[in-house]
Amino acid sequence: MNRLLIKPANFILAVYSYLxxxxxxxxxxxxxPVFIGVELTNNCNLQCPECSSGSGQMQRERxxxxxxxxxxxxxxxxxxxxxxxxxxxxxxxxHPSFFSFLEKARSIHTIVSTNGHFLSVENAEKIVKSGLxxxxxxxxxxDQESYSAYRVDGCVNTVIEGIKNISDAIEKFNSSLKxxxxxxxxxxxxxxxxxxxxFAKKLKVRLRLxxxxxxxxxxxxxxxxxxxxxxxxxxxxxxxxxxxxxxDRCVRLWLNPVVTWNGKVIPCCFDKDAEHVMGDLNNDSxxxxxxxxxxxxxxxxxxxxxxxxxxxxxxxxxxRGVKY
Length: 324
Hints:
11 helices; two-stranded antiparallel sheet; nine-stranded mixed sheet; single chain
């Protein structure tokens, strides 16, 4: 097959198998993933209270991805995927070989999400020249008080300076890199939305206002914004529950897996603690895992009783009317 046709053909196969499985209730898979998330590390320099990594609630081992595992991912999935996200849990720029991963992924549309504390002038220029397609930078406040309410141990001035460094480097090298500021909306910063809009407009970067996932039941009142548009949850019988009705289907299981730093393949980005390991790339090929028995069983459970799966209870896939 013509190499230019492999990715669109794979996309059609993957989507068709998802739709067929959803309507029949019997999981079948055709093709390979269309998108993939890769966790370079689950270590982080911040201690965000509603983050599995930053809060210290993560139970799995901490570490950094071996470049050989990444080589295996690129070699096997590179011909098929449209997009690769070089982030999951943790801060990807903490990886000692961060720029080597960017170089390896150069031929694929690649996105990195960072908390913005490592965007020095030198790093900004290296990122801009690396071939990276999109950089997402988290900025959850326009002053230190609002910012550090959630980004514990973070410095808002460092992040703002980093965003400016990236902006300057893009102009200097006439780069096509797309930059997006991500503003996690919560009760303590929602009043600054007009200011963050103005800031993004001034620097000519995109802005994403994102709803907040809450993992600690006692913290809903503290974090839930007053604006319903930015709430993932609703109060029913005294309990906050996700607004999502969790229908028995999920496109992520057919299109968008995640690989953890140590080569474990998990079903999606909501499996923060890698509770549902589908296979290990250190032992098997991706195709063997993708078509394997663990995936088949998990997909079958998604199609019949998704509401019983714990990681789905904070999932925004299919959630309507909420910024996520």
